[in-house]
Design goal:
Length: 145
Amino acid sequence: MGGPIAFFRMALNSMRTISRVHLYAWLPVVLLCLAIFIQSCFASPDIGPSFPLKDKLLHLSAYAFLAYLVFRACRMTRPAWRSPLMILVASVLFATLFGASDELHQAFVAARQADGFDLLADFAGGIIGGLVGLMVYFKAAIWRK
């Protein structure tokens, strides 16, 4: 019936479920951060068509995706954060701080340089990605009703 063994089994099953949810939520964030870090370790490849501000558009896109993934992960694993606005701020802050650490890292890599405008593009991308996450959240809330 009950007892400590049944309680232990229930707690273990609950931890496994939580771990799967956390893994599903945060693994994409970790993988994208790892990909950005690895790419920053080498000289920028000149692949694809060249156009003005290509580098800034790439930064904007990557960090928008990162902020969106952080927003998604927080919604999945932080139910106590009831405020979507709080999650928006956290996702933009995470993307911007990771962008700042990436620029600092690039200052120490040969054939790379830190650029304040890249950080500005990272911040703008973080805002865009966070807002996309917020729109997806509200769309899902409307669908649930």
